[in-house]
Design goal:
708 residues, alpha/beta, Immunoglobulin-like, di-copper center containing domain from catechol oxidase, 3 domains, 19% strand, globular
């Protein structure tokens, strides 16, 4: 019996985050710059209350005046605080980033904001040593918009060799207002002001239904859309795969990853909808039709002390003219860009401008999806942004500004304009179903995989079952769980020490895959691919395979040594290649909660990946019927030759790849369900080859809430 353990998984992908003790003092000091983003940089930072010795030429005129009367760091830190020396490197001369006011919101979807961030990122990455890097970071911390600074420094640290394994602080602890309603932050601030003893502070409880009621059917999915881990995943993915600059955006199969990660989110969301007796998401097809879905996030912004704008039912997209953000485009532009992309797919090539003349770049079977991904998103890698436009990003902007398209009311953008909040809005999924339809149109131009391409000679998957300890085979179980987030790093101008917000999330009981394999050939290696999909559609009819293949959600992918003869492969659900460990997104209340922020460092967010608590759908009380698919493919066809990993930070490779390396699977992302089936394979059973197996699985939702 072969047990594919966590240790094996660690050898295949980068290890977990560095512990605090392994980080250099320079990395620790850099991380302090993220804390309390609206406090001046010279106020005490961290549990040790360190003080940055800020050069006087970095200070504003107001603070220079104070500094002449008494040392600013002494004024705030006293005699005992540890000083962090910061040398002056002068003004970087980046005027554009400083034009974004500190009380404004930042968005990577807005080209002007992207240009601001690009200038900062490139400047930081050009620093010759870490002392200069820290000095530049301190300057930007003082002079830039807090959200712009957080994004730019995060991207720079993730891509600088000396800091790429640093434990970036979780955004929900730095900007809690992006994840919790405004009253939560206010109540937390009041608690720490009044209760100085950390052990006596009472956590802030958050109701599960704080953004609406079930009178709106879409609210049934609020627990999924507003899940902190899901939104952190979307935020962190865009840090790992920024739109620009090219020096950090140009990664192996980046455009294909944009397609696959979002396609999987849609598949996962559709499965959740079916569990809640809702139909699959309808794509936003006619951009001039009213948007039926309303959304009011109940979030507020600390910068401007105002609520994020909502969207009423039947809002209609309008031409955008927002001079302050440099945004000028028409709905006709979006339609034109989309039509040109469809034309490229049907013609089999995109038009590339080069050396003053137009050239054709073929959308090949191998690279076509990657080229299209970069064009549609559209990143700096787009081959012809002038012609194919900025479709995906401007769709986010158009919906984010639907309440004030010409800025006559001076309203900021809605949650759709921020990568950390966009997944909360139902229209996010309608837009991405439309985007996925473009990708699926391209995939339909490719021939279905032949039985030979799917077959693994000599390998037969004889049986598969999943097992929850103490339960029947092929029965999975979900429940509600109370968890917590530490808000202390995001409470500016407040006493130090942890203060928690308790919230409810979907969780599942751990389970184990048991896969019986027969190998009639000699010892070899294979790749195990595990997916799950709904068995029935909205009407209760058996799912047609042409539709079902787009709903298969990847649960795991790993390599395995295959011995001759019979063997049973066991794999724990917690080892998934899709998800990151629970502790990297949340604080587990079933464990003793540390009262000291420093003791929480081992839980800090490190890798990119889907939250493990959302690995499987909610299910139903009577058991939601699904089909679990297992395939063992030939590793010789899957292998990607590359150097051993050097990073110590674990990413979930299925959605995020592996840092500084090629994507670790030569097959198309989503294989074998990324294309239409071969001729004659009209059902899932007809699609199968001997190296595949499908079993019926039910997901039961127990309805209980587990807590400490």
């Amino acid at each position: 019996m072969l047990d594919v353990s966590r240790n094996l998984a660690r050898r295949k992908t980068p290890g977990y985050c560095k512990s605090l003790t392994k980080m250099s003092s320079m990395e620790k000091n850099l991380l302090l710059l993220f804390e309390r983003p609206f406090e001046p940089v010279f106020t005490p930072k961290g549990e040790e209350k360190k003080i940055f010795q800020v050069p006087e030429d970095y200070l504003s005129d107001r603070y220079k005046e104070l500094n002449t009367k008494s040392s600013i760091e002494f004024r705030f830190g006293g005699e005992t605080a540890e000083r962090i020396p910061v040398k002056s490197i002068g003004n970087p001369g980046l005027a554009l980033p400083e034009t974004l006011g500190k009380d404004e919101k930042f968005s990577v979807f807005i080209p002007l904001h992207r240009e601001m961030a690009t200038q900062v990122i490139e400047f930081l990455l050009e620093m010759k040593n870490m002392e200069d890097f820290l000095s530049a970071a301190v300057y930007f911390r003082i002079n830039l918009n807090p959200e712009l600074f957080n994004y730019a420094l995060s991207v720079a640290m993730l891509h600088k060799p000396e800091t790429q394994d640093s434990d970036l602080l979780s955004l929900n602890e730095l900007f809690p207002e992006k994840f919790h309603e405004g009253s939560v932050v206010y109540r937390a601030q009041a608690e720490v002001e009044v209760i100085k003893n950390v052990d006596e502070r009472v956590p802030i409880d958050i109701e599960r239904n704080f953004t609406g009621t079930d009178l709106d059917v879409e609210h049934r999915l609020a627990y999924f859309r507003e899940d902190i881990g899901a939104n952190l995943h979307h935020w962190h993915w865009h840090l790992v795969y920024p739109l620009e600059p090219e020096i950090v955006a140009n990664k192996d199969r980046r455009g294909e990853l944009f397609y696959y990660m979002h396609q999987q989110i849609i598949a996962r969301y559709n499965m959740e909808r079916l569990c809640n007796r809702l139909s699959r998401v309808k794509r936003l097809l006619n951009l001039r039709d009213p948007i039926q879905e309303a959304y009011f996030s109940k979030l507020s912004t600390r910068q401007a002390s105002r609520n994020w704008p909502g969207r009423a039912s039947n809002a209609v997209l309008q031409d955008i003219s927002r001079p302050k953000e440099g945004l000028f485009f028409d709905i006709q532009d979006l339609e034109r860009w989309r039509n040109r992309i469809y034309d490229a797919i049907h013609q089999g090539y995109i038009i590339v401008n080069g050396d003053g003349k137009q050239e054709k770049l073929e959308l090949t079977e191998k690279d076509g999806i990657d080229i299209l991904g970069n064009v549609i998103e559209s990143s700096v890698l787009s081959k012809n942004k002038a012609y194919y436009g900025d479709f995906h990003n401007m769709m986010h902007v158009a919906t984010a500004a639907v309440h004030d398209p010409d800025y006559r009311h001076m309203e900021p953008f809605s949650v759709m304009g921020d990568v950390a909040t966009a997944m909360r809005d139902p229209v996010f999924y309608r837009i991405h179903v439309m985007v996925d339809d473009i990708f699926q149109t391209y995939k339909a131009t490719l021939a279905g995989y032949s039985a030979f391409e799917l077959y693994f000679r000599g390998i037969r998957v004889k049986n598969v079952h999943v097992q929850v300890d103490g339960k029947e085979k092929n029965e999975l179980f979900t429940f509600w769980e109370k968890s917590a987030a530490n808000l202390s790093r995001g409470l500016d101008f407040s006493p130090r020490g942890a203060i928690y917000a308790n919230f409810i999330l979907l969780q599942h009981q751990p389970f184990t895959y048991n896969i019986e394999v027969e190998n009639k050939e000699g010892a070899t290696k294979g790749t195990v691919r595990i997916f799950i999909a709904p068995k029935y559609d909205e009407r209760g009819d058996s799912m047609q395979f042409k539709d079902q293949r787009k709903l298969f959600v990847e649960l795991d992918r790993f390599e395995v040594d295959l011995v001759k003869g019979q063997q049973t492969i066991k794999r724990k659900s917690e080892n998934s290649s899709v998800t990151i460990p629970y502790e990297q997104s949340y604080r587990n209340l079933d464990r003793k909660r540390p009262g000291n922020v420093q003791n929480l460092e081992k839980f800090n967010f490190c890798g990119c990946g889907w939250p493990h608590n959302l690995l499987i759908a909610k299910g139903t009380e009577t058991g939601y019927p699904c089909e679990l698919f297992v395939m063992v493919s030939n590793f010789a066809d899957d292998e990607v030759e590359q150097d051993a990993p050097t990073s110590e930070c674990k990413n979930a490779m299925s959605y995020c790849g592996i840092r500084n390396r090629k994507y670790p699977d030569a097959r198309a992302m989503g294989f074998p369900f990324d294309r239409n089936a071969r001729e004659g394979a009209n059902t899932l059973q007809e699609f199968l080859t001997p190296n595949m197996k499908v079993v019926d699985v039910k997901i039961f939702h127990e309805g209980k809430t587990a807590s400490d």
